[in-house]
Amino acid sequence: MELHSSVTIIIPTLNEEENIEILLDRLVKLYPKINILVVDDGSSDNTQQVVKEKSKVNDSIRLIDRSNKEEKGLTISIRDGILNVDTKWFMNMDGDLQHPPESIKIALGCISNDPEVIIGRRDHVENWPFTRKLISWGAQTLGRVSLFLRRKPIPKDIMSGYFGGKTQFYKELLKDDSFLEKGGYKFLFDMLKIIDKNTKVCEFGYIFKNRAHGSSKIGKKQILAFAKSLF
Ligand SMILES: Nc1nc2c(ncn2[C@@H]2O[C@H](COP(=O)(O)OP(=O)(O)OP(=O)(O)O)[C@@H](O)[C@H]2O)c(=O)[nH]1
Ligand SMILES: [Mg+2]
């Protein structure tokens, strides 16, 4: 489909060898013409090897290897991904199958509205323990207050990692990337804090799955970086 060739899926990864193989296969099957850019921060497992193997047989799949970069982290990996996108549209998604590849189709339905920003909204979260729900609720609430005080757009899921939009819009913003909390993991929230209230945002809903394999990389350091970004 013509539309798919104008889209790049960015997938930041850190030790996702089992998930990334399944995810790439599913994406290619669903959207054969789509471009895929995996941004890996020096995984110690076989994530990079898996991506390299896939990219040998499919030149729509690319790998950015950040192993030798001094600054590591999810937010700056997404930044590097966006700066290397050469299609009109992009979507960022997790590499652990929590963001269902089937909903890319729904996300791309947004394109007919010609939005600057596209945001996936977690309508339902599978099996989160009470503490995680509480932390997430607290973060969303504080974040919303922070955006309200700044008179900024407030989409339903301001902490979403499933987002994208018009590449050129993001590249313009990234000419000065000082708005990013570099050690953090909430690129979208950092961006919502600086964009114009009238920026055209399109939202779509999806079910946030459990991590398929491997373990979470979000720890105290990332939570602290988020707390800093509120102020
Ligand atoms: N390049 C890069 N990717 C990262 C980094 N930390 C996490 N990721 C990737 O970013 C995505 C989201 O990270 P997760 O650890 O799944 O965070 P989460 O979804 O909030 O947490 P869980 O629900 O526990 O999985 C995954 O694809 C990770 O592999 C990092 O420092 N660098
Ligand atoms: Mg995850």
Overview of this protein structure:
This protein has one domain (3-229): Alpha-Beta Complex (Spore Coat Polysaccharide Biosynthesis Protein SpsA, Chain A), CATH 3.90.550. It is 36% helix and 19% strand. It has helices at 17-30, 47-57, 74-83, 104-109, 130-149, 167-173, 187-192, 220-229; strands at 7-13, 35-40, 61-65, 89-92, 117-125, 163-166, 201-208. The chain has a 7-stranded mixed sheet, sandwiched between helices. Strand 1 (7-13), helix 1 (17-30) and strand 2 form a beta-alpha-beta unit. Helix 1 (17-30) packs parallel to helix 2 (47-57). The mean pLDDT is 94.
Bound molecule kinds, no repeats:
guanosine-5'-triphosphate, magnesium ion
Q: Helix share of residues?
A: 25-40%
By DSSP (H or I, 4+ residues per run), the number of helices equals: 8
What is the beta-strand fraction? 15-25%
Characterize the main sheet.
7 strands, mixed
Class from helix and strand fractions? alpha/beta
CATH homologous superfamily descriptor: Spore Coat Polysaccharide Biosynthesis Protein SpsA, Chain A
Order of helices and strands: EHEHEHEHEHEHHEH
Q: At CATH's second level, what is the architecture?
A: Alpha-Beta Complex
Integer count of domains? 1
Strand order of the largest sheet: 3-2-1-4-6-5-7
Count of strand segments: 7
Q: Give me the Rg, rounded.
A: 17 Å
End-to-end distance: 44 Å
| Overall mean confidence score, pLDDT | 94
Q: What is the CATH class? A: Alpha Beta
- CATH topology heading: Spore Coat Polysaccharide Biosynthesis Protein SpsA, Chain A
What is the overall silhouette? globular
